Amino acid sequence: MLTLSRRFAAVAFSALALVACGAAGDGAGTSGANPSEANADGELGHVLGQADAPLTIIEYASPTCPACKYFHDTVKPTIEEKYISTGKVKFVFREYPLNEIDVAAYAMARCAGDDKFFDVLDDLFENQEGIRYAAQNGVVKTTLGAIGQRHGIADTATFEACLSNSEIRQALADTYATSEKWGVEGTPTFIIDGVKHNFQGEYTTAEGFSKQIDAKLAELGAQ
C-alpha cells in the first residue's frame, strides 16, 4: 500500500514557478542522444497529435512541480494550438514522479484510462495548490480521490486498487526508466528531436519555445 506522507509538503513547493523541480543546478541547457535515437524508447508515454508528425517533443514532468504547472498553463496551450493541432508536432508526455504523491496521482490518471489521462492531468495541475494544502494537512489521499471521482474512479476501493495495481506500477517504472538515457535531472525536461533541453531560457516562454520549434521544423524542411 502506498503511503502518502506529509514530508512532501515541506519540499515540493519550495521552488519558484520558473525554477525546474529537482534540478541538479546550473547544468548545460542541452545535451542528450543523437536525433536518430529520438524514438528508440518505443511507444512509452501518452501522445497528443499525429503519429506521423515531422517533429516529436517528449516532456518529462511532475504534477506537483510548480515549474511544470507553469509550462502546462502558460506555454503548452500555444504549442497545442500552433503545432500539435496542425500536425507539425507529436507531443509525448512521460511521467517523472518526484515524490510519493506523484506516484499516486499518476497511478490514478492511468487507471482512469488512456482516453482520460490528459483530462486527469489537467485536473491535477489546476488543483495543484489544493493538493499542496491537503499534503500539509495529511489528507492528500482524500483530495486525490475526489479528483479521481470526477474521472470515473467511483469510490475509495477503486482508488486504492489503482494505487496498488502492479501493472500500472510497472508501467510507471518503465516510463521513468527511459529518463536515464536522456540524463533527465529535473522537471520539466524536454526531448526535442533527440536532444535534451532543460526548462530555462527560451524554453520558459511560449514565444521562445515556438521560436525553437520553428527553427527545428525549418531544419527538417517541415515548416
Automatic annotation (TrEMBL):
Residues 1-23 form the signal peptide. Residues 26-218 form the Thioredoxin domain. Keywords: Disulfide bond, Oxidoreductase, Redox-active center, Signal. Coiled coil: none annotated. The keyword Disulfide bond applies. GO terms for molecular function: oxidoreductase activity. SUPFAM superfamilies: Thioredoxin-like. May be required for disulfide bond formation in some proteins. Belongs to the thioredoxin family. DsbA subfamily. This is DSBA-like thioredoxin domain protein.
